[in-house]
């Protein structure tokens, strides 16, 4: 009370020193890999933790009940899935399915190799789905993931080729759709089919184990028609 300015200055220095020690004590280590999983140990300062939570929390929200069923994941599982989505598919080795998914929105350099692996012909890099095309897809599909009932914002989405690029699909807006990573993986691995409807918007066909009739779902109005 006698010298409040001096007290504030001392408290400020104490906080700065505490933050400095916290930064110096940051650690990250990896446990052994067993059965395809591993443990990560992290010790973070408060500021870094706040940044991480700010990135993870929007991705870790419970998904609304939709055609793929209710979200029954635990909070820990949702955070782990959000962390995986944040990192993206950057690890190796990758399965053929993962490579096809990555090829949906990537820069591909086509190359012709000889039997000894020597490069015979190197094509020019092709940027798949330009920024302008993504803007159009977002405008067309409501500025969010186009999967039925999903409302992940378009900045968290990936551009998916309705007909896969590796199968000859064109990189144009009529063959593109924005999907969050979770539903992008769903399309590639769980039997869902996405196609462009006559109304100029994507529509979805669930696998038989979800709907034996495979009624077509139009995400713009959530109506269904028979296939």
From TrEMBL:
InterPro entries: HNH (IPR002711), HNH_nuc (IPR003615)
UniProt superkingdom: Bacteria
Pfam families, per the entry: HNH
Residue ranges that the Swiss-Prot or TrEMBL entry lists as coiled coil: none
Region (Disordered) location: 1-27
An annotated Gene Ontology molecular function: nucleic acid binding
Domain spans labelled HNH nuclease: 132-185
Biased composition (Basic and acidic residues): 1-26
Protein name: HNH nuclease domain-containing protein
Organism: Actinopolymorpha pittospori
Lineage, highest ranks first: Bacteria, Bacillati, Actinomycetota, Actinomycetes, Propionibacteriales
């Amino acid at each position: 009370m006698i010298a409040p300015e001096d007290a504030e200055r001392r408290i400020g220095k104490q906080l700065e020193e505490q933050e400095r020690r916290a930064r110096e004590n940051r650690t990250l280590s990896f446990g052994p890999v067993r059965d395809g999983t591993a443990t990560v140990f992290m010790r973070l300062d408060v500021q870094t933790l706040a940044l991480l939570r700010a990135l993870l929390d929007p991705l870790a929200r419970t998904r609304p009940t939709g055609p793929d069923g209710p979200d029954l994941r635990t909070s820990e599982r949702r955070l782990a899935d959000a962390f995986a989505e944040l990192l993206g598919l950057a690890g190796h080795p990758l399965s053929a399915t993962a490579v096809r998914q990555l090829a949906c929105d990537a820069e591909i350099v086509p190359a012709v190799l000889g039997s000894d692996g020597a490069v015979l012909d190197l094509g020019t890099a092709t940027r798949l789905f330009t920024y302008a095309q993504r803007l159009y897809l977002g405008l067309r599909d409501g500025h969010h993931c186009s999967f039925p009932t999903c409302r992940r914002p378009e900045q968290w989405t990936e551009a998916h080729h309705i007909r896969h690029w590796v199968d000859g699909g064109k990189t144009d807006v009529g063959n593109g759709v924005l999907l969050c990573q979770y539903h992008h993986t769903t399309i590639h691995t769980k039997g869902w089919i996405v196609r462009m409807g006559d109304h100029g918007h994507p529509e979805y066909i669930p696998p038989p184990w979800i709907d034996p009739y495979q009624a077509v779902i139009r995400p713009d109005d959530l109506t269904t028609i028979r296939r």
